[in-house]
Protein backbone atom coordinates (compact mmCIF):
# COMPACT_ATOMS: atom_id res chain seq x y z
CA UNK A 1 0.00 0.00 0.00
CA UNK A 2 1.24 3.49 -0.74
CA UNK A 3 0.31 4.66 2.75
CA UNK A 4 3.28 6.12 4.60
CA UNK A 5 5.32 6.15 1.38
CA UNK A 6 5.76 9.60 -0.05
CA UNK A 7 4.09 12.82 0.91
CA UNK A 8 0.49 11.96 0.08
CA UNK A 9 0.48 8.76 2.08
CA UNK A 10 1.91 10.35 5.21
CA UNK A 11 -0.59 13.19 4.89
CA UNK A 12 -3.51 10.78 5.04
CA UNK A 13 -1.98 8.86 7.90
CA UNK A 14 -1.42 12.02 9.96
CA UNK A 15 -4.94 13.22 9.32
CA UNK A 16 -6.73 14.21 12.51
CA UNK A 17 -9.56 11.70 13.06
CA UNK A 18 -11.70 14.48 14.54
CA UNK A 19 -11.29 16.44 11.27
CA UNK A 20 -10.57 19.66 13.14
CA UNK A 21 -8.99 21.42 10.12
CA UNK A 22 -12.04 20.59 7.99
CA UNK A 23 -14.41 21.84 10.63
CA UNK A 24 -12.42 25.01 10.99
CA UNK A 25 -12.38 25.48 7.22
CA UNK A 26 -16.16 25.13 7.12
CA UNK A 27 -16.47 27.59 10.00
CA UNK A 28 -14.50 30.09 7.90
CA UNK A 29 -16.82 29.42 4.95
CA UNK A 30 -19.91 30.01 7.09
CA UNK A 31 -18.40 33.20 8.43
CA UNK A 32 -17.59 34.37 4.90
CA UNK A 33 -21.22 33.78 4.00
CA UNK A 34 -22.39 35.76 7.03
CA UNK A 35 -20.00 38.54 6.03
CA UNK A 36 -21.40 38.57 2.49
CA UNK A 37 -24.93 38.97 3.87
CA UNK A 38 -23.90 41.75 6.26
CA UNK A 39 -21.89 43.48 3.52
CA UNK A 40 -24.75 43.39 1.01
CA UNK A 41 -27.12 44.85 3.61
CA UNK A 42 -24.51 47.50 4.42
CA UNK A 43 -24.14 48.25 0.71
CA UNK A 44 -27.89 48.50 0.33
CA UNK A 45 -27.92 50.84 3.32
CA UNK A 46 -25.43 53.23 1.74
CA UNK A 47 -27.58 53.54 -1.40
CA UNK A 48 -30.80 53.77 0.60
CA UNK A 49 -30.79 57.55 0.71
CA UNK A 50 -29.97 57.97 -2.96
CA UNK A 51 -26.80 57.99 -5.00
CA UNK A 52 -24.45 60.86 -4.20
CA UNK A 53 -20.63 61.13 -3.96
CA UNK A 54 -20.60 60.43 -0.22
CA UNK A 55 -22.69 57.28 -0.49
CA UNK A 56 -20.52 56.05 -3.37
CA UNK A 57 -17.34 56.50 -1.31
CA UNK A 58 -18.95 54.67 1.63
CA UNK A 59 -20.09 51.92 -0.74
CA UNK A 60 -16.53 51.55 -2.06
CA UNK A 61 -15.26 51.22 1.53
CA UNK A 62 -17.91 48.58 2.28
CA UNK A 63 -16.83 46.59 -0.77
CA UNK A 64 -13.19 46.99 0.30
CA UNK A 65 -13.95 45.65 3.80
CA UNK A 66 -15.76 42.69 2.26
CA UNK A 67 -12.90 41.93 -0.15
CA UNK A 68 -10.40 42.15 2.70
CA UNK A 69 -12.46 39.65 4.68
CA UNK A 70 -12.65 37.31 1.67
CA UNK A 71 -8.87 37.49 1.18
CA UNK A 72 -8.16 36.78 4.86
CA UNK A 73 -10.61 33.88 4.92
CA UNK A 74 -9.10 32.49 1.72
CA UNK A 75 -5.58 32.55 3.19
CA UNK A 76 -6.78 30.83 6.33
CA UNK A 77 -8.75 28.20 4.39
CA UNK A 78 -5.61 27.45 2.40
CA UNK A 79 -3.66 27.01 5.64
CA UNK A 80 -6.23 24.36 6.63
CA UNK A 81 -4.91 22.04 3.93
CA UNK A 82 -1.95 21.19 6.16
CA UNK A 83 -2.47 18.13 8.39
CA UNK A 84 -1.47 20.25 11.40
CA UNK A 85 -2.39 23.82 10.60
CA UNK A 86 -0.56 26.59 12.47
CA UNK A 87 -2.59 28.66 14.96
CA UNK A 88 -4.44 31.70 13.69
CA UNK A 89 -2.22 34.78 13.89
CA UNK A 90 -3.46 37.56 16.20
CA UNK A 91 -2.99 40.01 13.33
CA UNK A 92 -5.34 38.08 11.04
CA UNK A 93 -7.89 37.79 13.87
CA UNK A 94 -7.68 41.53 14.48
CA UNK A 95 -8.07 42.19 10.75
CA UNK A 96 -11.28 40.16 10.37
CA UNK A 97 -12.72 41.86 13.47
CA UNK A 98 -11.76 45.24 11.97
CA UNK A 99 -13.70 44.31 8.80
CA UNK A 100 -16.80 43.49 10.86
CA UNK A 101 -16.58 46.70 12.88
CA UNK A 102 -15.96 48.69 9.68
CA UNK A 103 -19.17 47.32 8.14
CA UNK A 104 -21.14 48.34 11.23
CA UNK A 105 -19.62 51.83 11.38
CA UNK A 106 -19.86 52.51 7.63
CA UNK A 107 -23.49 51.43 7.53
CA UNK A 108 -24.35 53.36 10.69
CA UNK A 109 -22.87 56.50 9.13
CA UNK A 110 -25.50 56.34 6.39
CA UNK A 111 -28.54 55.60 8.60
CA UNK A 112 -31.25 58.15 8.03
CA UNK B 1 -5.09 44.51 26.65
CA UNK B 2 -1.42 45.01 25.88
CA UNK B 3 -1.61 41.88 23.73
CA UNK B 4 -3.74 43.87 21.30
CA UNK B 5 -0.86 46.21 20.62
CA UNK B 6 1.91 43.62 20.59
CA UNK B 7 0.20 40.48 19.29
CA UNK B 8 3.48 38.71 18.58
CA UNK B 9 4.10 38.54 22.32
CA UNK B 10 1.43 35.87 22.51
CA UNK B 11 3.79 33.42 20.84
CA UNK B 12 6.51 34.03 23.42
CA UNK B 13 4.40 32.97 26.39
CA UNK B 14 4.25 29.43 27.72
CA UNK B 15 4.26 26.54 25.26
CA UNK B 16 2.32 25.97 22.05
CA UNK B 17 -0.87 24.01 22.83
CA UNK B 18 -2.10 21.06 20.78
CA UNK B 19 -3.17 22.48 17.40
CA UNK B 20 -6.64 20.97 17.84
CA UNK B 21 -7.29 23.16 20.88
CA UNK B 22 -6.12 26.23 18.98
CA UNK B 23 -8.45 25.33 16.10
CA UNK B 24 -11.36 24.82 18.51
CA UNK B 25 -10.63 28.25 19.98
CA UNK B 26 -10.55 29.67 16.44
CA UNK B 27 -13.95 28.13 15.66
CA UNK B 28 -15.42 29.65 18.80
CA UNK B 29 -13.99 33.00 17.72
CA UNK B 30 -15.58 32.57 14.29
CA UNK B 31 -18.93 31.64 15.84
CA UNK B 32 -18.84 34.90 17.82
CA UNK B 33 -17.87 36.77 14.70
CA UNK B 34 -20.90 35.30 12.89
CA UNK B 35 -23.07 36.42 15.79
CA UNK B 36 -21.59 39.89 15.38
CA UNK B 37 -22.29 39.83 11.62
CA UNK B 38 -25.87 38.72 12.25
CA UNK B 39 -26.40 41.61 14.68
CA UNK B 40 -24.89 44.09 12.21
CA UNK B 41 -27.04 42.71 9.39
CA UNK B 42 -30.07 42.83 11.69
CA UNK B 43 -29.37 46.50 12.40
CA UNK B 44 -29.50 47.30 8.68
CA UNK B 45 -32.54 45.09 8.21
CA UNK B 46 -34.45 47.03 10.90
CA UNK B 47 -33.73 50.31 9.14
CA UNK B 48 -34.43 49.05 5.63
CA UNK B 49 -37.36 46.71 6.11
CA UNK B 50 -39.44 48.52 8.73
CA UNK B 51 -40.09 51.77 6.84
CA UNK B 52 -43.44 52.42 8.52
CA UNK B 53 -41.91 52.50 12.00
CA UNK B 54 -41.33 55.97 13.45
CA UNK B 55 -37.89 57.34 12.64
CA UNK B 56 -36.51 57.81 16.19
CA UNK B 57 -37.53 54.32 17.24
CA UNK B 58 -36.20 52.75 14.04
CA UNK B 59 -32.88 54.58 14.35
CA UNK B 60 -32.57 53.64 18.01
CA UNK B 61 -33.21 49.96 17.30
CA UNK B 62 -30.81 49.93 14.34
CA UNK B 63 -28.06 51.69 16.28
CA UNK B 64 -28.52 49.36 19.27
CA UNK B 65 -28.10 46.33 17.03
CA UNK B 66 -25.11 47.80 15.17
CA UNK B 67 -23.42 48.74 18.45
CA UNK B 68 -24.11 45.27 19.84
CA UNK B 69 -22.58 43.75 16.69
CA UNK B 70 -19.41 45.84 16.89
CA UNK B 71 -19.11 45.13 20.62
CA UNK B 72 -19.58 41.43 19.97
CA UNK B 73 -16.78 41.40 17.37
CA UNK B 74 -14.39 43.23 19.71
CA UNK B 75 -15.27 40.90 22.54
CA UNK B 76 -14.73 37.92 20.21
CA UNK B 77 -11.08 38.77 19.66
CA UNK B 78 -10.39 39.72 23.25
CA UNK B 79 -11.85 36.41 24.42
CA UNK B 80 -9.91 34.52 21.74
CA UNK B 81 -6.62 36.13 22.86
CA UNK B 82 -7.34 35.41 26.52
CA UNK B 83 -8.21 31.76 25.77
CA UNK B 84 -5.12 31.34 23.62
CA UNK B 85 -2.91 32.80 26.36
CA UNK B 86 -4.54 30.66 29.05
CA UNK B 87 -3.91 27.55 26.95
CA UNK B 88 -0.28 28.51 26.40
CA UNK B 89 0.21 29.02 30.13
CA UNK B 90 -1.73 25.89 31.05
CA UNK B 91 -4.26 27.91 33.06
CA UNK B 92 -8.03 27.49 33.26
CA UNK B 93 -9.94 29.11 30.43
CA UNK B 94 -11.31 32.57 31.29
CA UNK B 95 -14.97 32.83 32.24
CA UNK B 96 -17.21 35.57 30.94
CA UNK B 97 -20.55 37.20 31.67
CA UNK B 98 -20.78 38.46 28.10
CA UNK B 99 -23.05 35.67 26.73
CA UNK B 100 -25.64 36.39 29.45
CA UNK B 101 -25.49 40.15 28.88
CA UNK B 102 -25.79 39.70 25.11
CA UNK B 103 -28.68 37.26 25.54
CA UNK B 104 -30.55 39.73 27.74
CA UNK B 105 -29.86 42.62 25.36
CA UNK B 106 -31.09 40.68 22.33
CA UNK B 107 -34.15 39.64 24.34
CA UNK B 108 -34.96 43.26 25.15
CA UNK B 109 -34.56 44.33 21.51
CA UNK B 110 -36.75 41.45 20.33
CA UNK B 111 -39.42 42.35 22.91
CA UNK B 112 -39.33 45.98 21.76
CA UNK B 113 -39.84 44.85 18.17
CA UNK B 114 -42.75 42.59 19.13
CA UNK B 115 -44.38 45.53 20.91
CA UNK B 116 -43.77 47.78 17.90
CA UNK B 117 -45.25 45.19 15.55
CA UNK B 118 -48.22 44.40 17.80
CA UNK B 119 -49.25 47.99 18.51
CA UNK B 120 -48.27 49.32 15.10
CA UNK B 121 -46.35 52.32 16.36
CA UNK B 122 -45.96 53.71 12.91
CA UNK B 123 -44.70 57.06 11.79
Summarize the structure.
The complex is a heterodimer of chains A (112) and B (123). Chain A has helices spanning 6-13, 20-48, 53-79, 90-109.
What does this structure look like?
The complex is a heterodimer of chains A (112) and B (123). Chain A has 112 residues and is mainly α. Chain A contains 4 helices and no strands. Chain A has helices spanning 6-13, 20-48, 53-79, 90-109. Residues 1-10 of chain A have low confidence and may be disordered. Chain B is mostly helical and 123 residues long. Chain B has helices at 2-5, 19-49, 55-89, 98-119. In chain B, α2 (19-49) runs antiparallel to α3 (55-89) and α3 (55-89) runs antiparallel to α4. The longest helix of chain B is centred in the middle third of the chain and has 35 residues, at 55-89. The mean pLDDT of chain B is 85. The interface between A and B is large, with 40 and 43 residues. Chain A: Residues 10-23 have a biased composition (Basic and acidic residues). Chain A: Keywords: Membrane, Transmembrane, Transmembrane helix. Chain A: This is Membrane protein. Chain A: It holds the Pfam family DUF202.
List the helices and strands and how they pair.
The complex is a heterodimer of chains A (112) and B (123).
Chain A: H1 6-13, H2 20-48, H3 53-79, H4 90-109
Helix pairs in contact in A: 2-3, 2-4, 3-4
Chain B: H1 2-5, H2 19-49, H3 55-89, H4 98-119
Helix pairs in contact in B: 2-3, 3-4
Amino acid sequence: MPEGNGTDGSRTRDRDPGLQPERTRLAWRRTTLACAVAASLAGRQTLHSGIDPVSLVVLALVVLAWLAFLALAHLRIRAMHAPRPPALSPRAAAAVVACTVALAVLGAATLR
Amino acid sequence: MRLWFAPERLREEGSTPDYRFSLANERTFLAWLRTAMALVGGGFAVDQFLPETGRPLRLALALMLLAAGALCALRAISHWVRCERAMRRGEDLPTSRFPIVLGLAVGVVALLMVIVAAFGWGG
